[in-house]
Design brief:
This protein has 337 residues and is an alpha/beta fold. It is built from 9 helices and 16 strands. The protein has a single domain, classed as TIM Barrel. The relative contact order is 0.17. It binds flavin mononucleotide (FMN).
């Protein structure tokens, strides 16, 4: 079991946010899955993302080295839909989970916004619909709800992933909102979904900005950010359709756009490098105020060995998207010894 501020993740294996954790049936199946210790929703915006035929995902035809490319943006379902679905699931007695797990499995709600007022409204609605009753008492599942701010989707036209420019808007503004919300409620579990960084100073730059968010609570400095999920997909990549499952036909490229975010096997070494680097830096004297941040290692985990490598690199929790997309919730069983 891994404790991340108020939530407990047991076993420390989860799905990471993706197109296959989007609707009610998919979320219920993930909740019922005994091989995962938390459910992560697809990234929601306040009003829902305008999805169309250019938004797709495809798997490579190399079964042994499962790789994906996708051009998806965010979920077409607005945040309010996720709040309703999660309330329904948590209040239903129909889950096949054992009773003890039924009473503890958390939801990580992935959200994003491009400005501070919108993010503030989204966090407030999570607090008021899921974590607190109208009279301000915590709900029975208040400590099973976490927020993951997605700062790293590479597929949004005209909106580069904010975490690549950490000291500029919109990221600084969004982080300020998270700091304010944490100040109001220090039991709130907040994490950041980070992009794959490719050179050293990028790691220092984001950590310096996050270190600046620390607040004094009872004589100790506490950082509002409780976890990093590393990494999102690697943007601007290209696969030909001959490399994919749908290799027949007249399509030249795997995606119609044709560039997209790379995940799975091909991302694994870069994801391991990101987890390793953050893990080293978070334990260094320079960033001692961030030493409690838990790393959720994501990227190319497709078997037990991959999960072990993630842990060896410094992840306390391991996540997967492509593996889950290909084989469904049962696939998480492959990550156990
Ligand atoms: C089809 C697809 C959709 C995704 N959608 C999201 C998303 O909505 N939000 C997010 O934070 N990450 C999203 N991701 C990224 C995954 O959470 C994960 O970071 C990435 O795929 C690397 O993990 P993997 O190698 O296990 O797939 C998506 C990935 C895929 C393949």
């Amino acid at each position: 079991m891994v404790k991340i501020r108020s939530i407990e993740v047991d076993p420390p294996i989860i799905n990471s946010s993706c197109a296959w954790s989007s609707d009610r049936a998919q979320l219920q199946a993930l909740y019922d899955c005994t091989y995962t210790g938390a459910v992560t929703t697809r990234t929601a915006t306040i009003g829902g993302f305008d999805e169309n035929a250019t938004h797709q995902a495809t798997f490579t035809n190399d079964e042994a080295h499962l790789t994906t490319i996708n051009s998806y943006g965010y979920s077409p379902h607005p945040l309010s839909t996720y709040l309703g679905v999660i309330t329904d699931i948590l209040s239903s007695e129909n889950s096949s989970l054992p009773l003890d797990r039924h009473a503890s499995k958390p939801f990580i709600i992935s959200i994003t916004a491009s400005d501070a007022p919108t993010l503030r409204e989204m966090v407030a609605s999570i607090q008021s619909s899921l974590r607190y009753t109208p009279d301000g008492t915590p709900t029975s599942w208040a400590y099973r709800i976490a927020i993951e701010l997605n700062t790293s989707c590479p597929n949004i036209v005209g909106k580069p992933p904010p975490a690549y420019t950490p000291s500029a808007p919109p990221l600084v503004d969004l982080l300020t909102v998270l700091q304010e919300e944490f100040n109001k409620d220090t039991s709130l579990t907040i994490g950041l979904k980070l992009p794959p960084y490719v050179y050293q100073s990028q790691f220092h730059d984001i950590l310096k900005v996050i270190a600046g968010l620390s607040v004094a609570i009872d004589d100790a400095m506490v950082n509002p950010i409780a976890f990093f999920t590393c990494t999102n997909t690697l943007g601007n990549t290209l696969l030909f359709s001959s490399q994919t499952e749908q290799s027949s036909g007249s399509k030249k490229y795997a995606l119609p756009v044709p560039l997209g975010g790379l995940a799975g096997h091909a991302l694994h070494p870069l994801a391991l490098g990101n987890v390793h680097t953050f893990s080293m830096l978070l334990q260094s004297a320079e960033f001692s105020c961030l030493k409690d941040i838990v790393i959720i290692g994501v990227g190319g985990v497709t078997d037990l060995r991959g999960a072990e490598r993630m842990r060896e690199a410094g992840a306390q929790v391991v996540g997967a998207a492509s593996l889950f997309g290909k084989y469904g919730p049962e696939a998480f069983q492959r990550l156990f010894g």
